[in-house]
Amino acid sequence: MVPPPSFGDIVTAANIALSIYKALSDSMGSSYEYQCLIEELRSFERALRMVDQAIATTPLGERLTQDIAAETTTCLNLLKVFHDRIKSYQKALGRGGKGSSWQKIGWGLFKADEVASFREKLSQHKQNILVFLGGLGM
What we know:
This protein is mostly helical. The protein has five helices and no strands. 25% of the residues are buried.
């Protein structure tokens, strides 16, 4: 029997999603696409927390365990990469960033395609997570 997915990985992925959500939520005057990403992150983080709770209380079959473990690893890697990419912008995106107009403009102009791609990937992975929750009877 395959061991259940690491609770730590799911919680870590949820915490990174929440961290990105908070960092981006602190920005002011962001575009519609940016606001959609923020909401997608929050929804994604909640879905991860629901899976974490579900696998803690529900016995898993071997196939579902493998699928959740693989999805968790993929999500964690996706979130880590994006989190690392926004670190340099985090201060500029926050309320206290002085002299950061160029970085804010740069984020909006040069990262729009990355924001859209990341948001799309989050949405796809969230759908996968929701399928797992359905498989767990939630």
